[in-house]
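okkk here we go again. third time trying to get the nicotinamide-adenine-dinucleotide bound version out, last two times i messed up the smiles copy paste (missing a bracket lol). double checked this time i swear
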Amino acid sequence: MSRRKIALIGAGNIGGTLAHLAGLKELGDIVLFDIVDGVPQGKALDLAQSSPVAGYDAKLAGGADYSVIEGADVVIVTAGVPRQPGMSRDDLLTINLGVIAKVAEGVKRYAPNAFVICITNPLDVMVWALQKASGLPTQRVVGMAGVLDSSRFRYFLAEELNVSVEDVSAFVLGGHGDDMVPSVRYSAVAGVPLPDVVAMGWTTQERIDAIVDRTRKGGGEIVGLLKTGSAYYAPATAAIAMAESYLKDKRRVLPCAAYLTGQYGVKDLYVGVPVVIGANGVERVMEIDLDASERAMFEKSVASVRVLIEAAKGLNPAFA
Ligand SMILES: NC(=O)c1ccc[n+]([C@@H]2O[C@H](COP(=O)([O-])OP(=O)(O)OC[C@H]3O[C@@H](n4cnc5c(N)ncnc54)[C@H](O)[C@@H]3O)[C@@H](O)[C@H]2O)c1
Ligand SMILES: O=C(O)C[C@H](O)C(=O)O
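finally!!
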């Protein structure tokens, strides 16, 4: 059987890390595209030269012409700019909306059958714009944020409780902004709900509240430390989990920015919710019950996404 093809649009920090992880996991052959000619070719060659030592077989190539992505099975989009300290993700709207419009043209022309994962920020608007401008089916265009935010939440919880990260499960819902909704009620340690773990005296509600707050601001914490860009190892790892679930039809249940058609009372918007990812893309949206306070937080987060969508429509009439 021939190998699957994974196209990475944007060969910066996340793009390079995605290529490395996709290679190490032998997910398929990999192409990198970037507008800065030389960078995608250079990263592809460098990574290819790591493959004999690491022991993986994959063809790696790069280019500054969209034709390199032709026939890709999976496209992961990181093209655009990251924020700098002092900025919010929303400050990237104008510049990255222009980038995404071009990316959508390239994907529509060269990889219309791909499963497309958008990472570029502000995420929920960029994935919406990518789907609208490319015209690809909504179940094959998703945004990566929830897997990353949930992974941060899991890591902080595991550290607090002094247990393996493998035994902590958690969901973060809503938009990928500071008002995202880390769900305490649906988080668990080895299946034991987090509120019960608090009741057992393993930690306190105050400490959980602080972890929720740190999770919400997790991206900004890293931007503040790096000073020249944003997180890339964890974001790339998260997107690879989504790509792998699609390519191997694993049907993992992952929190992703998915197109909603009325679920959670939301229509024509991409928002982070748990979904099943299989061979057809987003196979199913899991509509979990939200209590009054969770619903209020979720709706606040959705309202922030809506405001940004309206701003995007104002910036580019093609989206109106
Ligand atoms: N969704 C998330 O959870 C999440 C997490 C981390 C970062 N991000 C976002 O991902 C994006 C990329 O982050 P990064 O750290 O890889 O940034 P980076 O600056 O390292 O890489 C971005 C790359 O995009 C390229 N680029 C710019 N315009 C382009 C275009 N028109 N076509 C093709 N390539 C183009 C640049 O040349 C650069 O190589 C940022 O917008 C960042 O905010 C999102
Ligand atoms: O915070 C950022 O700007 C990047 C990304 O959205 C993140 O959460 O790490």
